[in-house]
Amino acid sequence: MENKNRKLVLHFDARNTVFLADKCYRLTIEKALNTYLSGLVWGETALTEEEKESLSNEIRLLPDDWSCSEESPCLRSPFPGAKSVYKILEKHLVHIPSDRGKLRERLGHFTQTPEGLIFADLYSNHLNMLVWPKEASVSDVAAERFTVKGEDGVRYHYVLPAFLKLITYLAEQYQGEFMVLIRTYGKDGPYILRAISSFLQGLHPCVRAPLINVPSIDHRPLKLKRVLGAPFYTYTNEDGEVLAQDARTIYQLWNDSSVGIIGVVDDFNFWHEQNYDYSAAKPLWFDPEDMEHQHILFDDNIRFEDDGSNVVNVQELQKDSNLARSLSPEDALSFENIFYVQADLLKIISDTDYFVNQVQNCVKNFNNKFVNPSA
């Protein structure tokens, strides 16, 4: 049974979690889905230096000795040493943040390449699930806020229905307070917040908005910067005013906020400068003594057991201190499906109850671990 006193503080990555095709960098939905699938296809290869340099010029994405695992597509590495197509190309093509766009362009036709052709049906099936229903109205607001146009001119869902359905569930059925943070590494936050705002006004023709406990939205952008030395964090508002500079204070600000939905821009440059190491990624704090709040982060790029380049840095707040301790990958794994969930985009697309079920599971697991550990 859900703890009526516990506030849920839900953190959502943007790309491949809340939306697939963005409105900021104009990556088409076809290219976005292809790029995502390339991260689910694992295998191994022995790249020579010459082959590394030629990757960007060949029709094939990978050398001839590429061997795809039978388990693909899958979220996690199927065997030690396996690398996804996405990660192999990322390593050799992305040298500065702006190169990420080149990577997505390179992988944007993945299911039309020799390596990805066997996944073409999977691609087509999930793309079709995202088509905006013909019977649904497409007002100017709906077209601008809820849809994106594909390369074929067809309209597709922008914010994924499973995410919107979760908001309605939280408002109408969850027996407790909640807060939603859209945590991006780019400029997508305002577009997502505007879409959510229109949804809460009942303007979405496909997903019902909550009728009670409608959450408020703060559209003003917040930023969370990281540095290697003290103060480690700087949390600021749109005017550059410093709101907090330590882990516990930021954690408490989110816990105590009366606003229902906000957007936070995390520090991509810092993560990139640290070679995408998990310890430099988006911080996710938890307090093992705090039974009144449960933070849960959803992101598709969480793979502690692989190369360590995942996007979440799980940190345990220290007792009677404003400091927090970064957990090792091994320790962080013990809190999976309690404080964080590796978002499965294919399931988010195919199952509109995905987020509701995942949140309920995390609440249950929190209770089993912290509230009633002997039950």
UniProtKB/TrEMBL annotation:
This is Uncharacterized protein.
